[in-house]
Amino acid sequence: MLGIKKLDIFILKSYILPLVLVFFVSTFLLLMQFLWRYIDDLVGKGLELSVIIELFVFAAVGLLQMSLPLSVLCASIFAYGSMGDTNELIAIKSAGVSLGRMMKPLIIFNVFLMFGSFIYANNVLPYSNLRLWSLMFDVRNQRPEMNIKEGVFFDGIDQVRLKISSKNTETNMMYDMMIYDHRQNAGNVSVIIADSASMKVTDDKQYLVLTLYNGESYEDVIDRSHPDENRQKRPFRRYSFDKQQVLFELEDYAFSRTNVDLFKHNSQMQNVAQLDYMIDSLAFEYKVRNEKSFRQFFINNVYKSRSTKDSGYVVSMDTLTAGFSSTEALTVISKALNVARTSESFLLAAVDNNKEQEKGLNKLRIEWHRKFTLGFACLIMFFVGAPFGALVRKGGFGVPVIASFVFYLLYYIMTMIGEKSVKAASINAWLGMWIPVVIIMLVSVYLTKLAVNDKGLPSLKPFFQEKFSKILALQKKIKNKKHETNETSGS
After folding, report:
1. Which of 131, 186, 354, 483 is spaced 20 to 30 Å from 240 by Cα?
2. Which residues in 440-474 are b (16+ Cβ under 10 Å) and which e?
3. Same domain, 306 and 197
4. 309 with 427, same domain?
5. 436 and 482 share a domain?
6. How far apart are CA 79 and CA 92, in angstroms?
7. Of 352, 361, 362, 353, which is closest to residue 422 (Cα–Cα)?
8. Euclidean distance between the first and final Cα of the chain, in Å?
9. 249, 284, 306: which is the final residue of a domain?
């Protein structure tokens, strides 16, 4: 019994160490991908180090939902692959310990990890997303010192629009600058064009100093005392300059934090209980609203007046228009057709509106299911990695990294397809979110069955050899046919 306990400790050590290593490496790589994606929103904002650290911490916490299943998969392949490579699996099996018994300590560990993943997804992840995206909102709206993009009008300064054609990031010089100054609240009455310009913020962060070189200024002369100031034609002033400085006031340059409660209604910032309440409330609200709209439309447009001849069954038009003149009958029929067309348009619009409402509800349902699929994905990834590692029996990080990347990539692609289908209201949320988990589970069952029965992975070599032989035979047949055709034409 003592030996079994020592074996459990040995297996746990073989699994936990690579799990921690792969977890931190994968989280770091995903964090770098996050940084690369949002680098344009962070550069040139004058952010304090504490703000940047806070941003990265919350981003890393949010990325655990991707790095954790990948880490479990890679670590399980590495642990059992290394034991197989060093013949430890054979030695343990020869002692009468089955593969299922060897997997028992890690199964228990991953069951706890599954419940921990649910606690993380239900409590930690919503808070992390709330703080992350509220902070990103504040960063994006921070007054930039140098965040002007090429060929795009920059609106970071109140009542001023800037546009440049190119810029040098090393010298902070901008070229072909155009400035529209709307501070007079009179339209485009002041325009400045310069060949190049430089920009800096004063030390007190209150003003932006723009130094322009080799340009021209165009300004309409506005006479506020003139009785007809809104006239279409005005005199204008034009002058050239070699160097000119323009001062803009930056009232909101200091970094300010928005109240996070403004973002808490987003689906990614809610736990299971909150999502349940939101889904039920919105579904009930949509139902009441649609029924009210349907009732009002048909009462006011279709059933405003009922014919005395309407007995609830199909009646011919001749019967309905009996006693009317031809002109009156045509008028009645025309109005009936208009009502029918209006009703058709209303029903089509109602169907489209119902589909849009369903899409909004599906976004909440996706987040609800994601709380549970994360934990199940971690557990199932272990049942994929452990038997796969026992089957391939390859040590080191080469095979585990490649195999885990392939398996996780397939799972991720299926998850994205399922989510997009649910968001488009093409399939049910249960189906779209759980099909990838079920498919991976079937793969894990197949691999586990092979590993328990000491059967190797099916070889694909005969399959490819057969296909390759058929291709060679076909090429040879085509070549011989061409040769016979050439001989026939030559003779």
Report:
1. 186
2. bbebbeebbebbeeeeeeeeeeeeeeeeeeeeeee
3. no
4. yes
5. no
6. 14
7. 362
8. 89
9. 249
Say how far apart CA 175 and CA 151 lie, in whole Å.
Answer: 11
Looking at the DSSP bridge assignments, the partners of residue 194 are 177, 215
Cα distances (angstroms) measured from residue 418 to each of 6, 65, 268: 43, 17, 17
Residues 184-207 have pLDDT tens digits of 766 677 888 889 888 877 766 667
- Whether residue 1 has pLDDT greater than 80: no
* Same-domain status, 100 and 192: no
Q: Is 148 helix (H, G, I), strand (E, B) or coil?
A: coil
Domain extent, residue 213, equals: 154-224+232-249
Question: How does pLDDT run across 14-64, given as a tens digit for each residue?
Answer: 888 889 998 998 899 888 888 888 777 676 566 677 778 888 888 888 888
Task: Give per-residue pLDDT as tens, 229-277.
Answer: 555 566 777 878 888 888 877 655 555 566 666 667 777 778 888 888 8
User: Does residue 282 sit in the same domain as residue 404?
Assistant: yes
Q: Cα–Cα distance between 182 and 159 in angstroms, integer? A: 5
- Whether 117 has a pLDDT exceeding 70, the answer reads yes
Distance CA 326, CA 328 (A): 5
Domain check: are 350 and 362 in the same one?
A: yes
> Same structural domain for residues 218 and 122?
no
Rounded alpha-carbon distances, angstroms, from residue 147 to 23, 140, 172, 253: 35, 10, 11, 13
Q: What is the pLDDT of residue 429?
A: 86
Q: What is the pLDDT of residue 297?
A: 78
How many domains does the chain fold into? 3
Please check whether residue 388 is in contact with residue 72, taking contact to mean a CB–CB distance below 8 angstroms: no
**Whose CA is closest to 160, among 176, 180, 143, 146?**
180
Q: Which of 239, 307, 265 is nearest to 130 (CA)?
A: 265
Is residue 213 in some structural domain?
A: yes
168 domain-assigned: yes
Q: Which two tokens stand for residue 325?
A: 């003149």
Phi then psi dihedrals of residue 206, to 5 deg: -100, -25
Q: Give CA–CA dist 221/231, Å, rounded.
A: 12
Does the structure show a pLDDT above 50 at 2? no
Burial of 155 (0-12, 13-18, 19+ CB in 10 A): exposed
- In this structure, the answer to whether residues 38 and 178 fall within a common structural domain is no
